[in-house]
Design brief:
Mean pLDDT of chain A: 92
Number of domains of chain A: 3
Oligomer: homodimer
Strand order of the largest sheet of chain A: 2-1-3-4-5-11
Distance between the termini of chain A: 62 Å
Order of helices and strands of chain A: HHHHEHEHEHEEHEHEHEHEEHEE
Shape of chain A: elongated
Helix content of chain A: 40-55%
Strand content of chain A: 15-25%
Largest sheet of chain A: 6 strands, parallel
Largest interface: A-B, 42 and 42 residues
CATH architecture of the largest domain in chain A: 3-Layer(aba) Sandwich
CATH topology of the largest domain in chain A: Rossmann fold
Low-confidence stretches of chain A: none
CATH superfamily of the largest domain in chain A: Response regulator
Structural class of chain A: alpha/beta
Chain lengths: ~325, ~325
DNA sequence: TAAATAGGGACAAACGATTGTTTGATTTGT
DNA sequence: ACAAATCAAACAATCGTTTGTCCCTATTTA
């Protein structure tokens, strides 16, 4: 029969000293003599003593746990972000509790509630597609739980955030297509949410300006990101008398659906029509006709930077609100295949 | 200034009753009168009282948290498993702490240590490729933390496990190829670890027996799962005078590398050479020449079944060891594309 | 009518660790 | 040599909740 796990109390009893002495000895407190310190540490090691984390969490009112909310784990993109968060958290001896919103704002709220109840020390979140109010996040202020938004960041003031700007590399991408001789570059955009920055579109327009090419509004179409939505969008594009010769796709998912549909219509990819996309999935390398270029958004780094920012907030004793809102913007990169 | 979160104590003070009464009232204990019960519950609701989980965890010596160790999160396969685990855990009001071993046994041990220190109530694990001893898992017995292995299950006695048998669908897959006229069916196997069941190979052989086709040992090659390893393996196969006309690939990763290599060698996929694989990635539908069939292993269900088994163990008061080891085997399914 | 019973709460200990305050013993200074 | 300073360790409160036990007061029973 295994004895239950040893506590500070038992160490104290065995050495006939008080628990506070043991506690301080284990923490190398100056007011404990060298002799006792050694004795305690030796015995603790022998007994395989390990501090009871739940007791410490309770006493300190901290859980040493971060909450991480993501739309899903399926996409390679987010799993990389997780690794970034976990590695950073590990360095600080923190745990990470992960929740998937599945892009539903209700689940997002739910997860947040659960995390709050479990008293996570801080929250990292990449918001769901449905999220168009951050009231549920602002609530956490009342509980002194800092929130850092990353990757999918709501476009509102007074938040802490880390994201990867797509503006410049979108300009780069579109310009790249222009240089290749394309004049009709279409853009398949995602659903318009008031809360997400629209840097892709801004970059798309700016690239046209710089090259003095007029933006053809009809070349900007929208998909709800479903396969059917994307097919409708591309179908519309292909129906024009002067078809676009290049397409900027909202993400790799849209790109794949686009490519598949175009192929079905007997178009040669990267000949009749070129595709540029965001996210840079490793898997696209297995395609016969992958996008000609992709915008890499460095999810791992976003995750780790966001986590570091969160720790900075956690370690700041300043009274609420006196800490300036920090918004870290990373640069994306155009990768030409 | 926001007041700190309300406690049972404050409720007691406001109503001039004792904390124990409040506690029992909130739990609907029979020895508390209806009047007081109502009063307490009303006030608690008004004050937005929420039990302090960390205090409860401490008092009860339980964390209501499960540890989940996976090789990685990148593969869709494992993310589905996570969802299975999370959904099951959520039903029981449990949280899930996730760790990625990255297929390194040292990290696996590390994660396990961390989880033990954080006193998770139970552990679910799909072992790393390197794991060839489960000593580190057996240690958890001393701490009364039950372990359920799932998906990648060590081939040893006296464990609780949930896995998906590949035996019958491998027979089915190979037989399917035979029926299609193939006589030279190769098998690219993964690294041989003593601890993982080898049902693919057994099924491969059994299928030959049943169709009275001799197994050609040279058609069984091994890859370390890296791109290069797989290329070496397939190169070897293609070098034979009588080339195989079909290949059974260890998993989708191997299948993709195989297909890519074969294409490079100007072979027509599913004409010159057919590929059957395991795992059934959704992404393969974007390929021009996907595997002709796949074995689906139902990771979500494995995850949820494993979690349910774990809860069964957690809720069993029987003294250690008197609970019989349970091994749940699900059936895989051959999906023809 | 006195005693037994039940109902409704209060009291207090406990979980394991941390930390402010005290106490006692030894050393230092003058 | 005696007060003061220093050191080492004990004491005790505390975090929020749960739970075993005890107590008081009505109500019921013989």
């Amino acid at each position: 029969m295994e004895h239950k796990v040893p506590t500070i109390k038992e160490i104290a009893k065995k050495l006939n000293i008080s628990v506070s002495t043991v506690s301080r000895a284990l923490h190398d407190h100056p007011s404990i003599g060298l002799r006792t310190k050694m004795q305690v540490q030796k015995l603790a090691a022998e007994m395989n003593y390990e501090p009871n984390q739940t007791a410490i969490q309770f006493k300190q009112g901290k859980t040493f746990t971060l909450g991480l909310i993501l739309p899903n784990l399926r996409e390679e993109y987010f799993s990389s972000a997780i690794s970034g968060v976990e590695d950073a958290a590990f360095k600080h001896n923190y745990n990470v509790l992960i929740g998937q919103s599945h892009d539903l704002v209700d689940r997002e709220r739910n997860i947040l509630e659960t995390m709050r109840k479990h008293r996570v020390d801080g929250v990292l979140v990449s918001i769901s597609k449905q999220t168009n109010s951050i009231a549920h996040f602002e609530q956490l202020d009342k509980y002194n739980i800092p929130v850092v938004f990353f990757d999918r960041v709501p476009d509102v003031p007074n938040i802490h955030s880390v994201w990867c700007s797509l503006y410049y590399s979108t300009i780069e991408a579109v310009t790249f297509l222009f240089k290749k001789g394309h004049r009709q570059v279409a853009y398949i955009q995602g659903p318009q949410s008031l809360n997400i920055k629209n840097e892709r579109l801004e970059g798309y327009i700016e690239a046209h300006k710089r090259e003095k090419i007029a933006v053809n509004e009809s070349l900007i179409v929208t998909t709800d990101l479903s396969k059917e939505g994307t097919e409708d969008a591309i179908e519309k594009l292909l129906s024009f008398k002067t078809r676009p010769t290049a397409i900027l796709a909202f993400n790799d998912h849209v790109a794949l659906d686009t490519i598949q549909y175009a192929k079905m219509k007997k178009l040669k990819i990267n000949k009749d029509i070129s595709v540029v996309s965001y996210a840079n999935w490793p898997i696209t390398s297995y395609l016969d006709s992958p996008p000609i270029a992709s915008v890499e958004q460095f999810p791992y780094e976003q995750g780790s930077r966001a986590t570091e920012l969160l720790f900075k907030l956690l370690n700041t004793k300043l009274p609420e609100g006196s800490f300036p809102y920090e918004n870290i913007v990373l640069k994306s990169e155009l990768v030409i295949h």
